[in-house]
Amino acid sequence: MIKIYNTLTRKKEDFVPINDKEVKMYVCGPTVYNYFHIGNGRTFIVFDTIRKYLEYRGYDVKFIQNFTDIDDKMIKRANEENSTVKEVGDKYIEEYYKDADGLKLKRATVNPRATEYMDEIIEFVEALIEKGYAYEVDGDVYFSTKKFDEYGKLSGQNLDDLQAGARINVDERKNDPMDFAIWKAQKPGEPAWKSPWGMGRPGWHIECSCMSYKLLGETIDIHAGGSDLVFPHHENEIAQSECRTGKPFAKYWMHSAFLNVNNQKMSKSLNNFFTAREVLEKYDAEVVRFLMLSAHYRTQLNFSSELLDSAKSSMERLYNAVFNLENLLKEVKSENFTHSEKEYVKTLDSYREKYIEKMDDDFNTADGISTIFDLVRDVNTNINAESSKELVKYALGLIRELGKPLGILENSTQNDLEAHVEKLIEDRQNARKERNWALADKIRDDLKAQGIVLEDTPQGVRWHLKND
């Protein structure tokens, strides 16, 4: 039984979808006014992995991730680029897909754009006004937070505490300082749509409520996003949605923790802000995914070049095992399982069971990865040229199988590893010619740490993989 930590109840709960094996999942996507940064990347990788793991466990996941393509940031960027909001949105949605594909994110079932749902958003706002949960003032429409008795239940704060601690722009037109805009009257030079309240555009929160409602229905299984969205975005989504339908908006609320850079919160002011594209120029997607999944998704994770290098070495160790098994397939003579090998397969299967046990516990990818390393150590010790082809194939398939939900161990190995090692051997030979012994030794030691042993022979440098 999969268990999920539900932000709403603040405890782990058994995962029981509304409709048996069908899962309706909504993850808040990017505001498309720029390239997404690596902090966003962690959130995208986390919920991509959770989706893939649910599919691995036999669920049919309808996965919705929206694009916010109309808001203040979009308008500001359009003005800066002497462009239109639509042109900015089109540009950065295209760039999003390039980087998302680069990170090996599986395409969403639907990526709705807010501007494509304007009629539905207006209808949603009208319904809230009719039910008495929203009111219009000079072309703006506000949601009345005090009309929703459970406001604050996701963030765990009552309305009075929220009001006292919030930084709210004073607007005397609102009935209450905590009321928030669900429709905004047009300002000069802004894009706008015709509505019963005049020309205007939707507020951010109403967009997600509407797209989730239209694409997934009144109650969904999982709503997810970064922890910074708990309040006010997700809190306001709950209020709007539940006031319209009178039903729970989502059964499970999931939130990923922040990504720090060199032990500091990532921000432009500290100049420690990296786009996913910048990182992917230096590191393979699987290395980035490995680092992001090496900690539990609810734990803050540090991000640095040193940790990426460590992740790269770890991935190389795993790929060395895959490479070794693929080579064994060419060497082994025996075809079928022996009796003892059939018994050993039970040992291999126990790693799958352990992996599922760890991942079922609120998607503990860190322990899932550790289990793959345990499997690899066992395989390196017990499978060799005397093994049967059937056993080698089984072990290789199992390693690949457990890596797939994490989005790792999916690359080819033969050409990649050989080219990698041969290039470093060439660099080491050049260093020795230049009598740079320190660099030559470092290259040898780095390769050894990756499980690759160099041997200097009269015929030249040879290399082979060592067992753990």
From TrEMBL:
Assembly and partners are described as: Monomer.
Give the cofactor note text: Binds 1 zinc ion per subunit.
Where would you find the membrane-spanning parts of this chain? none
Question: Which EC number(s) are documented for this chain?
Answer: 6.1.1.16
Where is the protein localized? Cytoplasm
Q: Which GO terms describe its biological process?
A: cysteinyl-tRNA aminoacylation
Q: Does the keyword Aminoacyl-tRNA synthetase apply?
A: yes
Query: Which residues take part in binding Zn(2+)?
Result: C28, C208, H233, E237
State the UniProt keywords alphabetically.
Aminoacyl-tRNA synthetase, ATP-binding, Cytoplasm, Ligase, Metal-binding, Nucleotide-binding, Protein biosynthesis, Zinc
Specify whether Ligase is a keyword of the entry: yes
Q: What is this protein called?
A: Cysteine--tRNA ligase
Q: What broad taxonomic lineage does this protein's source fall under?
A: Bacteria, Bacillati, Bacillota, Clostridia, Eubacteriales
Name of the top EC class for this enzyme: ligase
One Pfam family named in its UniProt record: CysS_C
User: Per its record, what are the GO molecular function terms?
Assistant: ATP binding; cysteine-tRNA ligase activity; zinc ion binding
Q: Where is this motif: 'HIGH' region?
A: 30-40
Originating species:
Clostridium cadaveris
Q: Which family does it belong to?
A: Belongs to the class-I aminoacyl-tRNA synthetase family.
